[in-house]
Amino acid sequence: MSHMAAAPLSPLDPLPGADPLSGLDPLSAHRPPLGLRERKKLKTRTAIRRAAYRLISEQGYDATTVERIAEAAEVSPSTVSRYFPAKEDIVLTDEYDLVMEEALRRRPPGEDPLESLRSVITRAVAAHLEHEPERSRERARLMVEVPAVRARMTETMAGTSRSLSRVLAARTGRGADDLEVRVFTAAVMGALREALIYWAERDQRDDLVALVHRTLDALRGGPVL
């Protein structure tokens, strides 16, 4: 066994007998502890995602079928479909939504809503880039190059937006289905989507976290002319 320093673990790398996300990223302090059942589910999701990304890098997105992913992950195709209803979900979904929700709940009372979302989103983006740099870049590339992935991304981010809007509504004393909060949160997530696409279209040369900050600044005051 090599004595070289180990590479940083990804938030998706389970630790035996421990919360798979504990201590592995800047948001981990906000992650509720996982039970044995949830850790097993996380391990399966991780195996499926890893297999999918490896196959996509080797043979391309279209040639990577659910059946091939299942074989590589040593699970059945029905298991893949149970965890990920669409192939695009394997590329797009991760374990951060619940973490972001809990982090948002813990933001200071009375904080400007945009600043609360800015903190949660930029920390999640930074964690992705630190712990999953190759997957983050491959995901962004697929968002631009594969229409089905981009379309599904819109649906996925809408779900994240709805979850965060409920948390934000509770923090601001509004109803869980408050229209203004839903519109505001959807606008923030839509802006994030455009920042990700812009980053990918420019060959990922820019600092993505800085781009997200620029995006949210534009959302507050409009473009500087």
Report on this model:
The chain is mainly α. The protein has 2 domains: 28-87, Homeodomain-like (Arc Repressor Mutant, subunit A), CATH 1.10.10; 92-221, Tetracycline Repressor, domain 2, CATH 1.10.357. 66% of the residues lie in helices and 0% in strands. The protein has 10 helices and no strands. It has helices at residues 36-59, 66-73, 77-83, 87-92, 96-105, 113-131, 133-145, 147-171, 179-201, 208-221. The N and C termini lie far apart (58 Å). Residues 1-30 have low confidence and may be disordered. This is TetR family transcriptional regulator. Keywords: DNA-binding, Transcription, Transcription regulation. Residues 65-84 bind DNA.
What attributes characterize this protein structure?
10 helices; transcription regulation; 225 residues; 66% helix; transcription; 2 domains; disordered N terminus; TetR family transcriptional regulator; Arc Repressor Mutant, subunit A; MftR_C; mainly alpha; DNA-binding transcription factor activity; Tetracycline Repressor, domain 2
